[in-house]
Amino acid sequence: MAVAPARPRARAAWARIRQIAPWALALVVLALLVHQAGTIAWPEVLNSLKRQPPLGLAVAALLALGSHALFSSYDLVARHETGHRVSTPRTLGIAATCYAFNLNFGSLVGALAMKLRLYARAGLPAQQVARIIVVAVVTNWVGYLALGGLVLALAPPHLPAQIQLSDAAVRAIGALMVALAATYLTLCIVRHGREVRVRSLRFALPQPRVALWQFAVSIANWALMGVIVWVLLERAAPYPTVLAVLLLAAVAGVATHVPAGLGVIEAVFVACLGGELGSADVLAALLSYRALYYLLPLAAAAIGYAVVKASTRRAPEGRYRRPLSSSTTSTSTTTPMPPLGQ
Questions:
Q1: At 198, which helix (H) or strand (E)?
Q2: 204: which DSSP letter?
Q3: Does residue 207 surpass a pLDDT of 70?
Q4: How much of the chain exceeds pLDDT 90, in percent?
């Protein structure tokens, strides 16, 4: 009997793992949701919300504004790589509007349909917008891998009982994440300008200085998001722990495909920190975080989008310059933006 080659067999096994892993993670998160929902004393949560210090809320709101600005700057990286001539303020405005909608309603609304519509009004064709989206997605996730990997490797959080992973396993996962981020940077150094393909996604690797730009803005944004939650928790837990839990919650939100990660982020935080800080206080902080980071920017974005739609006429097609360098991105498909900072 012929034996199947090892490489095709390994590929088939890896394909099965990729299919099963998101569903397994989703089941774990849903189990956390069900378990935590039955243990929460909602009157205590309301009391904790009332006790939130106004100064802390004001600081968190300012930090949220800074985080949205950092995330919007991912489109400036894409502007450099694609060479379009949409002005910097307009690029930031489009990115901020789409990010707010993406956070609350998912990538199909924010990262895809709305970006296509708003950039089309600025005169860019759909293929150009697809390249912008790809660069922004890569920027977001390389920073996540680098920062998240370092946090998990150096300061792994206490995981709930439903996630049976030892500290050694968590540290190994963190080291793997750092290795993936380092691989991307290495490829940009030795193969910048060359096209790579991941499944149906094709793009040219940027120059090293652009890759470092991607790492800088993305790491800063994820770190700032952690600071927001840490401030709302009144610094009751170490910042590295809060950041690690936030990064875990981000992946859980992506894996479960729940719009805005509604309930998922809260369940992960309560499961990881509720025993130490109290479920009511943790949930109150996360509800404040959702109001400041999700809902207020959505209200502003909705008003801005309505004004733009009412007053802006579609610009003529083709008003964009040729790429500045050989690192111009190209793609055959688009990739959804992540619910968290995406």
A1: strand 195-198
A2: E
A3: yes
A4: 48
Looking at residue 2, what DSSP letter applies?
A: P
| pLDDT tens-digit series, residues 27-79 | 555 555 555 555 566 677 788 888 899 999 999 999 999 999 999 999 999 99
Residue 290's domain comprises 35-311
Cα 33 from Cα 184, distance rounded (Å)? 35
Task: Give dist(CA 242, CA 282) in Å, integer.
Answer: 11
Return phi, psi of residue 5, to 5°.
-55, 150
The partner residues of 201 in beta bridges, in order of sequence, read 198
- How many other C-beta atoms can be found within 10 angstroms of the C-beta atom of residue 294? 19
Assigned domain for 317 exists: no
Count of alpha carbons within 13 Å of 210, Cβ hemisphere only? Answer: 27
Look at 3-7, 64-68, 242-246, 334-338 and tell me which has the smallest mean pLDDT: 334-338
CA pair distance 32, 161, nearest whole angstrom: 10
Number of domains in the chain: 1
209 contacts 191 by C-beta, under 8 angstroms: no
Under a CB-based contact definition with an 8 Å cutoff, are residues 130 and 334 in contact? Answer: yes
Q: Report if pTM > 0.85.
A: no
